[in-house]
Design a protein that fits this description.
Elements: H1 2-21, E1 27-32, H2 47-56, E2 61-64, E3 67-70, E4 73-80, E5 83-88, H3 102-114, E6 127-133, E7 137-142, H4 148-156, H5 164-167, H6 172-177, E8 185-191, E9 194-199, E10 215-220, H7 224-232, E11 238-239, H8 244-251, E12 256-271, H9 291-300, H10 303-309, H11 340-349, E13 356-363, H12 366-380, E14 384-391, H13 393-402, E15 407-413, H14 423-435, H15 448-457, H16 467-481, E16 484-497, H17 511-514
Parallel strand pairs: 1-10, 1-11, 13-14
Antiparallel strand pairs: 2-3, 4-5, 5-7, 6-7, 8-9, 9-10, 11-16, 12-15, 12-16
Helix pairs in contact: 9-11, 14-15, 15-16
Length: 519
């Protein structure tokens, strides 16, 4: 018996010594593109701020892909047409050790829907009130609409849970500076260009999530060259959002691995097909009104070649302006294939085999300069002489809104976490890309059939069996007409020191950053 106790003590001491010897391995040093704008998650929807805050705070649930999974909530279901029930954990604690209560949840949810500065304030979730029953059961009372539960589930994934006592002080400034959440980490300090987070020992996964470092330090450094040198010298372990200008250099470092995560951003090429004549084209008429010429342009661009040779496969291809996980996406359609001979025959059929001059406006950036040069080179092969008009962002916006060019390159943000169709998704999935996406810009792409199809969709309920077929028909029409040509689906690229490893389990290196990464 004594020998067994001695053995246990020796093993315990060995564990302590091992922890002490490898303490450096539990610190992750990350380069970030900017300091967080706030430590109040509902106030700002910005990448770095979101990453930090999602590690400090938790919501009731989250989405992995298109599927909601539990966080603070254990289950949720529609009780009847006007009531949704959410059961939440009894043992959850804030990082100061105090227990999570129903009062905290109600105060946080009410603050989100009633605070005009909240990122969810502008969305109408049709919620009337909240009530806690039996200590850990939340009832959400809402107006009766078709499939409103899907919207409320999305709402529950967006609202972080604060302590009610801090919310009731009605001091947003205090909340921004003193974050107190139930997440895996808590804020130790934020001074100058350094943020220090420590792992929250009250977090429910503390004994399971051993991949996560005990300490995370986030450094803001505006110079990408300085960051690159720090990575090379092992003064930093990780770089978030590697710019394309550094991608080649970072990929050459054997001690780093590049990870990517799909974004909700898409680059696209938009045409003005409404005006009889259009700026930047040296013909007495607007050739972009001809579907054959738009398709010729689509097939003349070797986009897959760009993906492979220039962007190292770190961007994705799309067939239509929407993402494959969204309800109604036409899985049978493939992105436009590179076929210069088909492009030339289409140009000949349209009577423009000799080509024409055309300007394409872009916002001034390294990415769009590179993309513009690739488009210019490929279209020259079918006698379309492209001039890339690079503008400062403000001038680009002003031009799009006031004197639209014949064509422009820009980005579209689409939702990634809703699977049910509503007016917001219809707007973002089809309507905005086709009719103009830049603020209130109207590229005047008056395509009668497309507009009529969109209008019809607005009157279809989510549970109408015709909905999926109508969406696919609309996607096919958009694809055939080539009114807007998707270029890439963007990805976040991160460089991680190979001394940090994780496997294909549910263990995450730094919870919100690495979620979705796999070897």
């Amino acid at each position: 018996m004594i020998e067994k106790k001695c053995l246990i003590i020796l093993l315990f001491v060995a564990m302590l010594l091992t922890t002490g010897c490898t303490g450096r391995e539990t610190k992750l040093r990350i380069a970030i593109g900017n300091m967080p704008l706030t430590f109040d998650p509902i106030m700002v929807n910005e990448t770095v701020t979101g990453i930090v805050n999602r590690n400090i705070f938790e919501t009731l649930l989250m989405f992995e892909g298109v599927h909601p999974v539990p966080l603070l909530a254990t289950e949720w279901f529609a009780f009847n047409d006007t009531t949704m029930v959410v059961k939440f954990r009894k043992n959850a604690r804030f990082s100061d050790g105090s227990p999570l209560t129903g009062e905290d949840i109600i105060a946080s949810l009410n603050r989100a829907i009633h605070n005009p500065n909240s990122i969810v304030y502008t969305f109408n979730y049709h919620i009337n009130s909240f009530q806690i029953l039996n200590n850990n059961v939340l009832h959400i009372y809402h107006q009766q609409f078709q499939n409103i539960s899907a919207n409320i589930v999305f709402f529950l994934s967006r609202v972080p849970i604060h302590k009610a006592s801090e919310i009731l002080n009605n001091d947003d400034g205090y909340l921004r500076l003193n974050p107190m959440g139930t997440g895996e980490y808590f804020l130790v300090s934020a001074t100058g260009n350094l943020i220090t987070l420590h792992r929250n020992r009250y977090h429910r996964n503390y004994r399971i999530n051993r991949s996560s470092p005990q300490i995370v330090e986030l450094y803001y450094e505006p110079s990408q060259d300085v960051i690159f040198n720090k990575l090379k010298n092992n003064d930093l372990d990780m770089m978030l959002n590697v710019p394309l200008s550094l991608l080649d250099d970072v990929m050459d470092l054997a001690q780093f691995t590049i990870y990517d995560q799909a974004q909700a951003l898409m680059s696209y090429l938009m045409f003005d097909i409404s005006r009889d004549d259009t700026p930047g084209i040296n013909l007495p008429y607007n050739p972009l009104k001809d579907q054959r010429i738009r398709r010729a342009i689509a097939h003349a661009m070797n986009i897959q070649g760009w993906v492979d040779d220039v962007f190292h496969g770190k961007v994705g291809r799309l067939a239509v302006p929407g993402y494959p996980h969204l309800f109604g996406y036409p899985d049978h359609l493939e992105p436009y294939r590179y076929n210069p001979e088909l492009s030339k025959s289409l140009m000949e059929a349209a009577g423009t085999l000799d080509g024409f001059d055309m300007k394409i406006s872009v916002a001034n950036s390294r990415f769009y300069s590179t993309l513009g040069a690739l488009i210019e080179n490929d279209l020259r092969k079918i006698n379309i002489n492209v001039q890339i008009d690079e503008l400062d962002f403000g001038d680009f916006v002003h031009q799009i809104e006031n004197n639209p060019p014949s064509a422009f390159l820009s980005v579209l943000l689409t939702p990634t976490q809703i699977t049910h169709i509503n007016n917001i998704i219809i707007d973002l999935f089809f309507y905005e890309p086709i009719l103009g996406t830049f603020r209130n810009n109207h590229m005047r792409n008056q395509h009668t059939e497309i507009i009529e199809a969109i209008k019809n969709l607005r009157y279809i309920q989510d549970n109408d069996p015709r909905l999926n077929n109508l969406l696919i028909e609309l996607a096919e029409l958009v694809y055939e007409e080539a009114v807007v040509i998707p270029i890439f689906q963007h990805k976040n690229l991160h460089a991680l020191n190979n001394r940090f490893t994780f496997n294909m389990s549910e263990n995450y290196l730094f919870s919100s950053i690495s979620r979705g990464w796999r070897r």
